[in-house]
Each structure stands twice: as C-alpha cells, then as structure tokens.
Amino acid sequence: MGVRGIRGAITIENDTQAEIVSATKLLLEEMVSRNGVRADDIASVFITTTEDIKAAFPAQAARLLDGWQYVPLMCAREIPVPGSLPRCIRVMMHVNTSKAASEIHHVFMRDAVQLRPDLSNRG
To answer: Domain containing 79: what range?
Structure first.
C-alpha cells in the first residue's frame, strides 16, 4: 500500500469562524466520501488559506469529524499571488491507499472549481 494525495478546495463568502469551520468540514467530508477514506487511512492533512482568511484555523473543522482526533493537521498561508482566487481554503490530504492516481477523486467546490476545471467534473 502506498500514499496518495487528495486535493480539495472551497471558497467562503465571509471571513467568520462559523463559515470557515462549516466550509472546511463540508470539504473534508466530501473528500473522504468520494474516495472511501476512513480516518485511520489518513496519514496527514495540510490546509492553506488565502491572506483574507483570518478568523479561525480551518483545522478546527477536522476535530468535529468522527475518528479524526489523531489525524495530524497543519494550517498555513497561501502565497499571495496577485489576481489569485480570494477567500479560498485548500486541502492536501495524504492517505494510505492501494488506489491508482487515476482513481483518486479530487474535490473543488464553489468558486474553487476554477482552480482545476479538468478535475472538478470527475466523480
């Protein structure tokens, strides 16, 4: 069994703790659902936000999910590239799996579908 990365991203309308946690929880749930991932399969999760998200750590959302108390989480800031998508939360989830790279379903929600339109319509 190897390790694969699952990409995900979602945007929020307002920089509030409630919205950050809610959107991140929705994204994480969709990522594990589409890929049949269990909490014990997750090696680590790296979460980034754009500069305009400051009200909360998105990793708080993971602590609301069953079985995630031992999942290693890290939050960081995205590079502030001019013209990049605002109010965006990005996730890189590393999972232990025997799936091929082509079998992984990456999840881009709301305005974040424009980040990877080639992957957004799969599964």
So the answer is: 2-118
Residue positions counted in the chain:
123
Q: Is 63 annotated as a binding residue?
A: no
- Condensed to tens digits (0 to 9), the pLDDT of residues 57-114 reads 999 999 999 999 999 999 999 999 999 999 999 999 999 999 999 999 999 999 999 9
Say how far apart CA 67 and CA 80 lie, in whole Å: 33
Count CA within 13 A, CB hemisphere, residue 33: 9
Quick one: residue 46, left, alpha or beta (phi over 0 = left, psi -120 to 50 = alpha)? beta
Q: What pLDDT score was predicted for residue 25?
A: 98
Answer whether residue 123 is part of any domain: no
For residue 59, the number of C-alpha atoms closer than 13 Å in the C-beta half-sphere is 17
7 is in an annotated binding site: yes
Flag whether 87 is in a domain.
yes
Band of pLDDT at residue 1, cut at 50, 70 and 90 = confident
